[in-house]
Every structure is written in C-alpha cells, then in structure tokens.
# Entry
Amino acid sequence: MATLQDSGGNNIGGNQTARSPLHVVTVPQAPISLGSYRIASTTGTIAAALAASAQLFYVRWTDATRCFVLKKFRAQFQCLTAFTAATLTDFGFDLFRATAISAGGGGTDLGATAKPRMNTSMGASLLDSTGLMRISTTAALTAITTLDGIAIAQSVGDAQRVNPATGTEEQRVNDPTLTYLFSQADGDHPLVLKQNEGLVLRNRAVWPAAGTGIVTVEMAWDEMLASAWA
# Structure
C-alpha cells in the first residue's frame, strides 16, 4: 500500500506505520477573479425618531459574470444624545440579503470611492461605481427592494433606559452591535451576491424621542467569478 510522506521521508498515516503529523498552513480563499477588499465607514448623526425598518447601509451588486462573497460584517451604534422616552426593548439592527434590487439612493455615496484592496496587486473593486454602496447621513436611505423575509444577522442588547433626572445615577445607554462572520474552517457557506442582489443594514424599531447617534459599519468581502458559485 502506498504511503504519503512528509519532506523528511516520514510516513504520514497508513495503518501500523510510524506516523508524523501533516502540517498545513491555511491561506485566504483564492480570489479567482479580482481580490479581497475591506471598508469601514460611519454615518452622520442620525436624527431622533428614526423610523422602524429604516435602511442605513446597503450594497448593490450589478455585475453579471462575477459575484460578491461576504466574509465579515459589523455594525456598531454609539449614542450621542440620550433618549428621553420610555424604555425600548427592541432597539437594534438587522442584516438582510436583497433580491431583484431597485436603485435606492440618499445618504453618502461610497460607491465612487476606491475600496481598500488587501493586496496592491489586486484589481479595483467592482463596487467602485456611483450608487452601488451607500451609508446614511442624518436619515434613512431610499430603500432598495426586495428583502428576504428573515435576517441573516441581528444585534442584541439591553433595553434602552429612560434618561435620568438631574442629580440621579446615570443610566447605561444601550449600544447594540451586529456581527456577521463567515468561518471557512467551520464549513460555513458565505453569503454570495449575484447580479441584481444586495445587502442591507436595517433599523429594527422606531427610535425613542430625542435620542440621536451614529452607526459604524465594517465589512470585508471577496469578488470572484460567478462560475465558482454556480
């Protein structure tokens, strides 16, 4: 029976043979077509009473022969002006996949800005085009459609407390964080966007009175041949 040997001539596995471990080095998934990219961006100060289901960040993928493969996504909220209304128990955010997307609009257009490449030898991102990536400034974006019925990631946190009266103990402000993390080592299947699909970060419930804040988005992704994910 043939045996597999390491560079020193030691047998690796094989019934009763003396075994030595097979050492491997993990590397990022091969980009195949373009490369790997990452962005971090922060909204402007979002005004009080933000509506439920308000879209705060989105990606539109329009290329027919290549696809967007999401590896990491994180959205963090920071309160700037304390909420003064009653306790809110469902304060947070949802991440959705979108299909048959419409144009959307509003906010700050991140599409026309060159995305950081993880290696300078990689090509420019296909998202370096006007309108393909937007983040909120002071209000909701013009929504893109159509979203899946169930989110792929959600934030969770404590209930939002009433702003305390002067001289009383300060109450903690809920700063929810949403995290999506693809783990290739665990056998996860990444989120793959093909032509006319998208990714949307959405507010879950109406913000209480007076409160304002900012949302920071961090995202890492690969751009690959669509045939690799047929």
In short: The mean pLDDT is 84. The CA atoms of residues 25 and 185 lie 12 Å apart. The chain has no helices and 13 strands.
